[in-house]
Write a structure and sequence with these properties.
The structure is a single chain. The chain has seven helices and no strands. The longest helix has 52 residues. The chain is mainly alpha-helical. It is globular.
Length: 229
C-alpha cells in the first residue's frame, strides 16, 4: 500500500507544478494589464493638459467695416481696384466672345480666348475678395466700356481685328499701370493676391495682342500719356 501511495504522489506532482506555473502566468498578465491602464490614463491626462495650454487658432474673416480684418487695412485705391478689375471682365469677356465670330485672323481669335479664360478666373477671385472685404462692386461695365463693345459688334473681318487690338491693348496698358501701383503699395493681403493675379493675366493678354502684329505706335502713345509724371 505504501509503495502504491508513493507512486500516486509522484504521478500527481507534475500536474501540481503546471498549476503553479499557470497561476503565476495569470498573475503576471494582470500586473501588465494594470500597468498599461495606468500609463494610458497618465498619457490622456498629459494630452489634455497640453491641449488646454495651446493657443486657439486665429480665424481670419474680414471685418464688416471693410477694413480687411486680419488681412490688412484697405485704402481708397484698393477699393477702386476691385471695381476696375470687375468692370474689365464685364466688357472684355464679351469682346473675347465676339472675336470668335467677327474676327478674320486666327491670332485675334486666340487673343479672344485668352481674354475669356483669363478674365473668367480673375473675375471669380475679384468677386470672392469683394465679399470677404465687404466692398461692393458693380454688376455692369462702365458706359465707356459698353460703348466699346457696341463698336465691336458693328465691325467685321479686318476692321474688327484692328479695332479689337486698338481698344484692348490700350485698356490693358492703362490698367497695367494701376496694377503696379496697387501691388507695390497695398497693405491688404487679399488685394495683394488679386493684384498679382491681375498682373499675370494682363501681361498675358498684352502678349497675345502684340502677337497679332496689329499694335500701333499711336496706341502705345495713348497709354504713355496716362502715366503719372
Amino acid at each position: 500500500m505504501m509503495k502504491s501511495h508513493a507512486r500516486n504522489s509522484r504521478q500527481q506532482s507534475p500536474v501540481s507544478g503546471r498549476g503553479r506555473v499557470l497561476a503565476l502566468t495569470v498573475a503576471l498578465v494582470a500586473v501588465i494589464a494594470g500597468v498599461s491602464v495606468w500609463f494610458s490614463q497618465r498619457n490622456s491626462s498629459a494630452d489634455a493638459s497640453v491641449s488646454a495650454n495651446l493657443p486657439a487658432a486665429k480665424s481670419g474673416p474680414a471685418a464688416a467695416d471693410g477694413t480687411g480684418g486680419d488681412t490688412g487695412q484697405l485704402t481708397a485705391l484698393d477699393k477702386v481696384f476691385l471695381t476696375k478689375v470687375r468692370q474689365a471682365g464685364l466688357w472684355e469677356m464679351p469682346a473675347g466672345r465676339l472675336a470668335q465670330t467677327h474676327a478674320s485672323s486666327e491670332a485675334i481669335k486666340r487673343a479672344g480666348m485668352h481674354l475669356l479664360e483669363g478674365h473668367s478666373k480673375l473675375d471669380e477671385l475679384d468677386r470672392e475678395d469683394s465679399a470677404a472685404l465687404n466692398v461692393p462692386i458693380p454688376d455692369q461695365a462702365s458706359a465707356e466700356q459698353q460703348g466699346w463693345v457696341a463698336q465691336l459688334k458693328k465691325a467685321q473681318g479686318r476692321d474688327f481685328d484692328q479695332l479689337f487690338v486698338d481698344l484692348l491693348r490700350a485698356s490693358h496698358g492703362k490698367i497695367f499701370i494701376t496694377i503696379g501701383e496697387v501691388r507695390a503699395t497695398t497693405k491688404n493681403t487679399l488685394i495683394r493676391r488679386l493684384a498679382t493675379q491681375a498682373n499675370n493675366t494682363v501681361q498675358d493678354h498684352m502678349d497675345v495682342l502684340e502677337d497679332t502684329g496689329l499694335v500701333k505706335d499711336s496706341t502705345l502713345d495713348n497709354v504713355a500719356s496716362t502715366v503719372p509724371k
